[in-house]
Amino acid sequence: MIESRIHPKSVGRIVVEPFVLSLAVVDALVVVAFIGVGLFMHAIEPWAFPAYTIRTATPFVIGWAIAAPLVGAYRRQVLESVGRTLATVAAAWIAATLIGGAIRSSALFPGGAPPAFLLVNASLGLGFMLPWRLAVTGGHCWRSNRG
């Protein structure tokens, strides 16, 4: 009898699927937190205006959802290397900023996307995304080395 099972661990270069899904969800939450801090710095309390916060964050969450898989942010090799994590997450966030800026410039979302805004978004957003993803990489490496 031939068994026909799909083994998530053998899905190419992508890490185990439930882990990737969890990582993607937390990535999105990190983007929302970053936007929330930005709103707070502009005297808008994100907890007082949750719909506005979500609407403001959505273009950048969409940007991340498009860019991160395309540049390989969920590949096993990225999670096994600090250097790869730095390079891949930086590339993904810069691309996500540009995609989010394009979406934010449309009539569907509030605000515009002048170059100065995109530059600030790209640089400060890395300050949120990189520590989170480096912690994930560190945890992944630590678990791999333990056994």
TrEMBL record:
InterPro entries to which the protein is assigned, alphabetical: DUF3054 (IPR021414)
Keyword field contains Transmembrane: yes
Keywords (A to Z) from UniProt: Membrane, Transmembrane, Transmembrane helix
Presence of keyword Zinc-finger: no
Protein name: DUF3054 domain-containing protein
Species annotation: Natrinema pallidum
Transmembrane region(s): 20-44, 56-74, 86-104, 116-136
